[in-house]
């Protein structure tokens, strides 16, 4: 993982030397998000591989839609297998991260297509699976998790790069999936990081409940990003091929400043109140100044169904086969009961989930030592707020299946 050089903090006065180092970090943070943004690698308790229950739940709920879409593919349009003795079907997972979710999805897609080809064409094509994410992704952990070549029905390759740009040659791919990745933006909007701007997001780490100008800046960035993503996939996917997108989202009636829905979900979401309180604790401890706090913004946006549909129609070249919204409980009822009995365990689990998503960018902004203090403050906040344990939080997800026309 490529991160900015850590900040050096004096042991006698935490604030001494901060401004010079922060300016250096701010330039790298603002201009190089794609170099540092990734899910936490490895397989320890703070890794994404061990803390991806919510994305897994969303994938499980959208699985019937994905399988139905694959079954409905027109193989004659999809490929000319009857004329090509050496046909290879190419599948890509964009924003693959690490762990079980990407591997299980690729296995499922390959197996479904393999059976479909055998049944309809009487032949079994070869499959090539591309696992793509930003260069900072832990590809080593991912490929160590791959099933043995003798037991899987596909050849595997890694493709580092941003899916907001081109990753493959024209008409290269047959099936593309992107799972719980498109809610991450290509960058924090410039206006949000500018103290002179009306969109300066003072005192917040994210946009839920933020002022109008901040939300508008994020919405504009989200719109540009999704249109760029779709235009690139339009070039890369063969006619008759499929694009399946699963992303964090919100229902259409919900305004963008309300990213999370009901008050309980807002209170429990890892990016919202408890995160802001943790940053405030760092400020009170003298480990950071206000500029450092206000310069950190989480590059995520939950789109509405309408925003996704508008981007698809504006891009052209795709037909929406089906699109649906899911509301997902943040964790199982069994875990909920367990954590009510043990709030410390809840705080630890919640913090591990936050580490899995934010540790790389927090370290790029603060350096490893202070970023670890941030997560300790977060854990203390969550563990001590007993009222959170008696709330039920939900995540929203949008699943969309598109056919390349």
Structural summary, described in words:
By secondary structure, the chain is an alpha/beta fold. It has one domain: Vaccinia Virus protein VP39 (Rossmann fold, 3-Layer(aba) Sandwich), CATH 3.40.50. Strands 1, 2, 3, 4, 5, 6, 7 and 8 form an eight-stranded mixed β-sheet that branches. Strand 1, helix 5 and strand 2 form a beta-alpha-beta unit. Helix 1 packs across helix 13 and helix 7 packs across helix 11. It starts with 17 loop residues before the first helix and ends with a strand. The relative contact order is 0.16.
Concise summary:
The chain is of the alpha/beta class.
Structural class: alpha/beta
Q: Total domains, how many? A: 1
The string of secondary-structure elements, in order, is: HHHHEHEHEEHEHHHEHEHHHHE
Number of helices: 15
Q: In angstroms, what separates the terminal alpha carbons?
A: 38 Å
Please state the average pLDDT score: 85
Main pleated sheet: 8 strands, mixed
CATH architecture annotation: 3-Layer(aba) Sandwich
Annotation keywords:
alpha/beta; 17% strand; methyltransferase activity; magnesium; Gibberellic acid methyltransferase 2; metal-binding; Rossmann fold
Layout of secondary structure:
Elements: H1 18-31, H2 33-36, H3 53-71, H4 75-78, E1 88-94, H5 100-121, E2 126-133, H6 139-144, E3 155-160, E4 173-179, H7 212-236, E5 237-250, H8 263-268, H9 273-284, H10 290-294, E6 303-304, H11 305-315, E7 318-329, H12 333-341, H13 343-366, H14 368-384, H15 386-389, E8 394-404
Parallel strand pairs: 1-2, 1-4, 2-3, 4-5, 5-6
Antiparallel strand pairs: 5-8, 7-8
